[in-house]
Amino acid sequence: MSLQARWLLLVACVAASPCALAESNAPRAYVTNQGDNTVSVIDLLTRVVIATIGVGQRPAGVAASAAAGEFAYVSNPDGNSLSVIDRSTQQTLRAIPTGASPLGMAADPVRPLLYVANWYDRRIQIVDRERMAVTGEYAVGNVPAGVAVSRDGTLLAVANRDDNAIQLIELATGSTAALIEVGRAPFGITLSADGRQLFTANVLSDDLSIVDVRERRETGRVKVGDAPYAIAHDARRGLLFVTNQQEGTVSVIDLATATERTRIQVGDYPEGINYSATLDRVYVASWFDNALFVIDPATLTVEAQIATGDGSRAFGDFIGE
Amino acid sequence: MLTRVLSLALLCVLPLAAAAHGPSRQKVTQDIVIKAPAAKVWALVADFCAISKWHPGVVNCAGTGGNAVGATRTLTIGKEGGPQIAEELQLYDAAKMTYKYKITRTDVTVLPVATYSAFLSVTDNGDRTSTASWKGGFYRSWGKNDPPPEQSDAAALKAVTGTYAAGLANIKKLAEQ
């Protein structure tokens, strides 16, 4: 382990309680590389790529958080399939056929299910993770992109990109609980850690919508950079980090005041972005630069850059911790 | 009035451009090493609308706004009266010898792309040589499944690759004269 990694482990151990973080179960990132049909598995503590896994055609979406269980899932829009990755061996176990162009995904933290948006088909497919098969679907709006599930498993939130709306589905009944108007072309969708707020990155209106889940309405709109794509939430500091695809930056939003604090220069075409609570770092995939950028949310600076495969997307919850 | 007409035109173009992209973006990166100082190479390409002087495929460029962010250029391709492509400057950094632009309206018969943006950059290699780079990200023009061959990912990649190769080769030729 490098000196820096040891220092990070120390920081992580101070931050996380109880201090049980060993190298073997350090958080890992599963970064989809759309250009070369692989996933880079990165140990985020040592910042080393520990495996490069072959998956399906043009992988983009990923569901690799703890909610996904023993496997990590990757969507292959050009192969109309999901790849199932075994986290213990870092190998692709099998492919699950889906509808046309699966993209956004989210794992149900309560049921052994996975929700997969079909870009062209106005539906969310329900994948049974035990049977490894599609077992149902929900009808949604036009061009479903990002998908998120509340921690208690009650609500599924879908960004219907071409309707400029968020659709909330009650998972107990499967019924649509609300359609909430947001900015133009919502793409990435992120739930706050406490489940009370939803955030969407609106690609065409260059802003971020803040939605109150209980009140089922948009309560705020914050201007960000050119073509925002996805959002990470640092609940500890009350900050949002938004990737601005077309300008190679990450906007930092102060949630309390709903204002932009700064923009951080990262690689070109930043896309997937996640916050690791364990390591207290923000991770950003750069599609053009084939890298995962590491941002320190305390200093709001880029701390490191990890080389990945070609065309990193990492759209979804790509960190397992 | 002109501004209003332009805004209307843009409003018409934008939703179309947005609709026209599937999930799989393509990229092309090309570099060429030139036996000339970076300043000389940059002088050739620095003006956003100088492209008709250095790109053999562009016969005319009509520009507005110079090199300010938001400047536009309309390229005529191949021959007078040929297909046109409209572009807009997104970033411009003379000190770093780089700029970024996007296509606001294409003609799919010559460039079958959507949501296209690209960087043109010159770097000093420190040994009286320099490198000119052109890199772009884009989707194919066909936004739905099952594109016809002339609007497929392969067609988009081929058109952009050919555009960059021809342009960079001519920059090298002009700079080394």
| Biggest beta-sheet profile of chain B | 7 strands, antiparallel
Tell me the name of the CATH class of chain A. Mainly Beta
Characterize the largest beta sheet of chain A: strand count, sense, and whether it forms a barrel: 5 strands, mixed
The secondary-structure element order of chain A is HEEEEEEEEEEEEEEEEEEEEEEEEEEEEE
- Termini separation of chain B (Å)? 45 Å
Describe the model:
The complex is a heterodimer of chains A (321) and B (177). Chain A contains one helix and 29 strands. Chain A is mostly beta strands and 321 residues long. Chain A has a single domain, classed as Methylamine Dehydrogenase, Chain H (7 Propeller), CATH 2.130.10.10. In chain A, strand 22 and strand 23 form a beta hairpin. Chain B is α+β, with helices and mostly antiparallel strands and 177 residues long. Helix content of chain B is 31%, strand content 36%. Chain B contains four helices and seven strands. Chain B has helices at 2-19, 38-45, 51-54, 153-176, and strands at 26-34, 58-64, 72-77, 84-93, 98-105, 113-124, 130-140. Chain B has a seven-stranded antiparallel β-sheet with strand order 1-7-6-5-4-3-2, sandwiched between helices. In chain B, helix 2 (38-45) crosses helix 4 (153-176). Residues 1-21 of chain B have low confidence and may be disordered. The A-B interface holds A 34-35, 58, 60, 77-78, 100-101, 103, 119-120, 162, 185, 203-204, 226, 246-247, 268-269, 287-288, 311 and B 14, 18-19, 22-25, 27, 90-91, 102, 117, 119, 135, 137, 144-145.
What characteristics describe this protein?
heterodimer; A: 321 residues; mainly beta; Methylamine Dehydrogenase, Chain H; five-stranded mixed beta sheet; four-stranded antiparallel beta sheet; 1 helix; 29 strands; 54% strand; B: alpha+beta
What's the helix and strand layout?
The complex is a heterodimer of chains A (321) and B (177).
Chain A lengths: L2 H13 L12 E6 L4 E6 L4 E7 L6 E3 L7 E6 L4 E6 L4 E7 L4 E6 L5 E6 L4 E6 L4 E7 L4 E6 L5 E6 L4 E6 L5 E6 L4 E6 L5 E6 L4 E6 L4 E7 L4 E7 L4 E6 L4 E6 L4 E7 L4 E7 L4 E6 L4 E6 L4 E7 L7 E3 L1 E2 L1
Parallel strand pairs in A: 4-28
Antiparallel strand pairs in A: 1-2, 1-29, 2-3, 4-5, 5-6, 6-7, 8-9, 9-10, 10-11, 12-13, 13-14, 14-15, 16-17, 17-18, 18-19, 20-21, 21-22, 22-23, 24-25, 25-26, 26-27
Chain B lengths: L1 H18 L6 E9 L3 H8 L5 H4 L3 E7 L7 E6 L6 E10 L4 E8 L7 E12 L5 E11 L12 H24 L1
Antiparallel strand pairs in B: 1-7, 2-3, 3-4, 4-5, 5-6, 6-7
